[in-house]
DNA sequence: CTGGAAATTGACAGTCACTATCAGAAACCC
DNA sequence: GGGTTTCTGATAGTGACTGTCAATTTCCAG
C-alpha cells in the first residue's frame, strides 16, 4: 500500500484525485481568464486563448463554465450571505436582518478577496456583455431574496408588501454598487446606511 | 408664400423619400420579427428568417438593429414618462412625483399598445437572452432616474440619499414587473401602492 | 431632366461564442 | 489487474455579428 507518503500528505486529504483535479482545473481556468481580461480586455480575449493559457481544450472550458461571462460572475459569497440571513434571530425584521447579514458577509473580508471582488465588480459593470449577464444574476437574486423575505415575515411570495420590500432592498444594493463611486469597503458602509432609510421611509 | 398647400400633404411632410423608406423598413423588420418570435419563439427564430420575412438581406437587418435583442427592446414610453415627471409641480416630493408620472404614462394607454407592451414585456422576461439585454435598460434607466431625482430634490448625483431612493424606486418597479404575476394594468395599480410604502417605510 | 455625389443595399467571407458527438484516456471500485 | 464511470480533446457544426466592396437607389445642382 503506502510505499509513498501517508494520509498526512495534504494532497491526499481531499475527497479524491478526481475532485481535486476538477477544482484545480476550474480555478486555473478562472485565474487565467481574469488575468487575460485584465491584460487585454474582456471582448478581446477569446475562449480559445483562455483555454490555451489554462492548458485545456475549448470544450473543457465550456464544461466548467456555461458561458464566457460565468467565469467573471461566479461568486462564492451568496451561500454565506443566505446562511447568515437565515440564522438571524426571528424577532428581527427583514431589513435589519439583511443589514446584519451584509455586514457579516462582506464586513470582515480578507484584503485579497476584497480586491478580487472589487475587480470583478468593476469588470462586470464596464463591459456591456457582462452587464447583460449581470441581469441574470440580479433577477435570480431578487427571486431568492423574495423567498427569504417571505419566509422571515411569514408571508407568501405573492404578498405585495414582500415583493415591494424585496425589490426595494435589491434596488438599493444595486444602486450602491453601480452608482456610488467609492471603494468596496466604503460601499458596504454606505449601503448599510441606505438600507436603514428603507425602514424609516424616504423624505426626499 | 404658399402657392401650393403641399406642406399639409401627409406624404410630403416627411423629410424625404429616403427617410420615409428607412422608417418603413425599420417598422417592417420589427413587425415581422415580433410576429416570428410569437410564432416560433425567440431563440428558434434566426436573423436570416427575419430578414427574409421583411424582404431585406441579413446585412440590412444589422444596419437597422445593432442586435437581435434590440428589435424587442425598442421602447417609446421613456421620453413621455420623463417629461411627465419633470413637469410635476416642484413642491411635490420625489416618490409622489414618480407615482403621478407612472399613472399618467401607463394609466390611460390605448388597449392595443398596452397589449403589445405586455407581450414584449413577457418576452423580455421569459427569454434568457433578452433578460440579459434587459439589464442594459435597467442600469441606464437607474442612472437616468438618479439624475431626475437629484434635480428635483436639489441634490447632486453623488448624494447618498438620492442614490438610495433612486435604487429603491427602480427596485420596486423591477420587482413589480418581474415577480408579480398579474396583468399589466393590475401591475400598474399595485406598483402605485408599493411605491407609497417607500414614503412611509417598511414594517416587515 | 440629367449627371454626378452620397446614401443604401446585398453578396461574400470571416470571427467567435457555443453545442453535439464520439472515441480514447484517466480515475475509481473491486 | 478488470470493468465501470467520468473526464477530456478533436471534430464538425450553428448562428450572431462584422468588414468590405461593388451595384443600385435617392438626392441635388445646374
Question: What can you see in these coordinates?
Answer:
The structure is a homodimer of 204-residue chains. The first copy, chain A, is mainly alpha-helical and 204 residues long. Helix content of chain A is 72%, strand content 0%. The first copy, chain A, has helices at residues 17-40, 47-54, 58-64, 70-73, 77-86, 94-107, 111-126, 128-153, 160-179, 184-200. In chain A, helix 5 (77-86) packs across helix 6, helix 6 (94-107) packs antiparallel against helix 10 (184-200) and helix 8 (128-153) runs antiparallel to helix 9 (160-179). The interface between A and B is large, with 53 and 53 residues. Chain A binds a DNA duplex (30 and 30 nucleotides) through helix 1 and helix 3.
Question: Briefly, what is this?
Answer:
The structure is a homodimer. With about 200 residues, the first copy, chain A, is an all-alpha fold.
List the helices and strands and how they pair.
Two copies of one chain form a homodimer.
Chain A (H helix, E strand, L loop, with lengths): L16 H24 L6 H8 L3 H7 L5 H4 L3 H10 L7 H14 L3 H16 L1 H26 L6 H20 L4 H17 L4
Chain A binds a DNA duplex (30 and 30 nucleotides) through helix 1 and helix 3.
